[in-house]
Design a protein that fits this description.
152 residues, alpha+beta, Arc Repressor Mutant, subunit A, 20% strand, elongated
Length: 152
């Protein structure tokens, strides 16, 4: 990736709905080479896809909960099954295998505390192999950003 590719990525991060002409003008290329670069970044996996950012409160998901989880076992099979189970729970919007005191950090979106209690009872507490969990409700989001494009 060179400086022009990074400029294209910046333009797409700012507005993924921008037209090819708008992106081309922003980076100083004509449409055809700009499109070729975009396609190349898509094909190589630099650009994984295009999406929209939803306002959680506007769609009724007012609370974000960070859940730290420790498992009883760390075998490959246990980790794989745990990941598959999390993938099937729509309220779990991010899951990270982490170092430190806990094994996983989950980001969960729910309507309110009662909805989180329901999720715990009906889904999370039914996952076999969880030894311990700790939940923290997010009070306010101070920063939310896309990946930084260093060197752009």
């Amino acid at each position: 990736m060179d400086t022009t590719d990074r400029k294209i990525l910046q333009a797409l991060q700012a507005n993924a709905r921008a037209s090819l002409q708008e992106i081309s003008q922003a980076v100083g290329l004509s449409a055809t080479p700009c499109w070729s670069r975009i396609r190349k970044m898509e094909d190589s996996g630099v650009i994984e896809g295009y999406t929209i950012r939803l306002n959680a409160q506007a769609i009724g998901l007012s609370d974000t909960v960070l859940v730290q989880v420790t498992l009883d076992s760390h075998s490959d099979n246990t980790l794989e099954k745990f990941g598959e189970t999390l993938a099937a729970i729509p309220e779990v919007i991010e899951a990270y295998l982490v170092s430190g005191e806990y094994d996983y950090l989950l980001r969960v979106a729910v309507r309110d505390t009662r909805d989180y209690e329901r999720l715990l009872r009906e889904r999370l507490y039914k996952i076999k192999g969880i030894r311990h969990s700790k939940s923290s409700f997010v009070l306010r989001t101070l920063k939310r950003a896309d990946l930084p494009l260093l060197g752009a």
